[in-house]
Amino acid sequence: MNIRFSAIALSLAAATALPALAQDKVLNVYSARHYQTDEVMYDTFTKTTGIKINRVDADDAGIVARLRAEGAASPADVVLLVDAARMAAADAQGLFQPIKSAKLDAAIPANLRAAPTADGVTWTGFSTRARVIVYDPIRVKAADVATYEQLADPKLKGMLCTRSGSHPYNLSLFSTVVERLGDQKGEAWLKGLVDNMARAPKGGDTDQIKAVASGECGVALTNTYYMARLVKSTKPEDRAVVERVRVVFPNQGTTGTHVNIAGAAVAKHAKNRDAAVQFMEYLASPFAQQYFADGNNEFAAAKGVKVDNAALKAMGGENFKAENVPLASVAKNMTKVQQMLDRVGFK
After folding, report:
1. What CATH number has the domain bearing residue 183?
2. Which of 66, 141, 220, 308 could form an S-S bond across to 208 if both were Cys, CB 3.0 to 4.6 Å?
3. Using CA atoms, how far apart are residues 59 and 7, in angstroms rounded to an integer?
């Protein structure tokens, strides 16, 4: 069963309950993912285990609002969100519970999970996306945008386009850079980004790619799956954009390219905890990893699993070096980095 709610409705519908099924044969999943390829993954879990999935689809904010409103009465067992910053924020609000799983420990790298405690781990990444640099090869040399740090170089003055600095995708990247550079150098880097902007931040990642293609900008940041969607598109206007820009996976010679996650957690008040843990372990299996990652043109998170995605390969994403900064440690920087953004005038 697939029940859809708007973010507003979710925040108001605290009393809405999912259909009641046998306690040991149902799993209630609140999901910010809504990709057709995921359906095969869910169906296979049900056929294999006999556990039926009831799903509530909404965006991250709507799901978090619903969990908070429902409190202990929430029927949610598993929560799927699409960004480490959002996972960390929901965790900080006490919406998840820790679990212990030898299978997850073995399959998912530690840097893609919440920091472990004596009680276990609260959230786990199951797919990754890279935050890459898109540039205009007519105006910009690849060597001049080989690292995130170079985006603050004065030679790029008037060329940089981004979405809002406070958006979780940017906030996760910026928090990682500050973690590596330290507070003083990190804030100076953010100021350099502001100084190099071609215009005030606006739009989403696809808008940034198109702005580079149109000549409005010389360089921009984007998550890989936005570029992959354009690569896969058959629309002439999208094909023209792809032909006009180039992609760099930054910091390949040093710390590696920043990666973010789509992840899952067991809800704080899960009524079907054992089934929830079983589902989390299933998401780490090679079969589920293929569907979970490819549904949004992402990379698998589990060790040794490769997603065969032509669009990702086309942009050079087959064997790139990813950074290994723990996303859990990055999360603690986010409030501090937001204050830095305010100080340097990054909208």
Report:
1. 3.40.190.10
2. 220
3. 6
